[in-house]
Amino acid sequence: MSKLLSVVVSVYNEEPGLRDFYSEATAVLRALPASWDYELVFVNDGSSDDSGRLLRGLAREDRRVRLVEFSRNFGHEAAMIAGIDYADGDGIVCMDADLQHPPELLPEIVEKFEAGCQVISMVRVRNKSAGLLKNVTSSAFYKLINRLSDVKFEPNASDFFAVDRQAAEVLRRNYREKVRFLRGYVQSIGFAKTTLSYEARPRVAGESKYSLRKLFRFSVNTILCFSDLPLKLGIYSGAVTALFGVLMVLYTIHTWAKYGAPSGYATIVVLISFMFAMLFVIVGIIGEYIAILFAELKDRPVYIVKDTVNMEKGGGTAQESGRGSGSLAAEEVPYKKIKNL
Asked: Peptide bond preceding 33: is omega within 30 degrees of 0, i.e. cis?
């Protein structure tokens, strides 16, 4: 009995390079061992260009191409989990459509699945196109989060990863936060894990959808999702401030004994500025945690599916979430079934 490999591809305004990606990926997938069949699950994340039309054309030409279209742009993280929800494979590979994630590594991933691995993290060893700043900040981010979090992440692990059916089912059922870090979840769920190294290829077309501002926001949310240490800064800062206060008392007594009563104006201004700055930082951190809790409390869908193509078969969360053409469906947490609207 043959196994099925699902390749999940997040698409947002990737029209210029989609045909190249499809050609390269299918050439590699058709050369897989006879015991493996494949499907290409494209998730159109509210593209404003002609990506949707092009993907529909590919789906008409090739029944192995399956399409999930969002009602609007929900972001890369939502697109990846949607692809996992709708994938039917015994092994699922998530990758981008810009060819920076090399399709030629798919046979190696299949070999790892055959060897019994259930979670495969793809570690980027080099990315010349990213530039010095992004490479440095990426390395610093992993060092920081590994210091703050109990979960230890593989440095430079990317959104290029693979999971087997059992691991994918855990992601479908249990890891449904609104503010999410999917590659972190993949590394934290356990199972038989391994890594593969790759060098990021030049982007075939277009440009990165992550600005430095978005990357900073994404990094902050990730740290807050995986660590409660920032919440404890209030305790640590309180202890530091108390120590600083004791030192100032001793300094004041010393100056009073030696020079008489000090004016204290500059000292008071510095102390007040320092303490208010620390207070506002702590309040800001608490506000970020409250914002995440508020997003979870509202319980809005991670994504909304406007339409699907070539999704006749069932599987995972998607079975009752709008499979088939012309459906409008929403995905909720955890693992709830939403009737077609």
From this structure: no
| b/e sequence 31-45, b meaning 16+ C-beta within 10 Å | ebeeebebbbbbbbb
Query: What are the beta bridge partners of residue 92?
Result: 6, 163
User: How far apart are the C-alpha atoms of 149 and 11, rounded to whole Å?
Assistant: 31
- pTM for the model stands at 0.69
Tell me the chain's radius of gyration from C-alpha atoms: 25
How many angstroms separate the Cα of 24 from the Cα of each of 27, 110, 161? 5, 17, 18
Please give the tally of structural domains in the chain.
2
Q: Contacts for 170-173 with beta carbons within 8 Å, 24 or more apart?
A: 171/81, 171/84, 172/84, 172/85, 172/316, 172/317, 172/335, 173/334, 173/335
Residue 336 lies inside a defined structural domain of this protein? no
Tens digits of residue pLDDT in 71-110? 888 888 888 899 999 998 899 999 888 888 888 999 999 9
Are 23 and 84 part of one and the same domain? yes
Per the structure block, which two tokens stand in for 162? Answer: 């693979």
Cα angle, residue 82 at apex, residues 176 and 210 outer, rounded to 5°: 90
Could you list the residue range(s) of the whole structural domain that residue 280 is in?
229-298
Whether residues 9 and 84 fall in one domain: yes
340, part of any domain: no
> Are 189 and 268 found together in one domain?
no
Token reading at 296: 């979870």
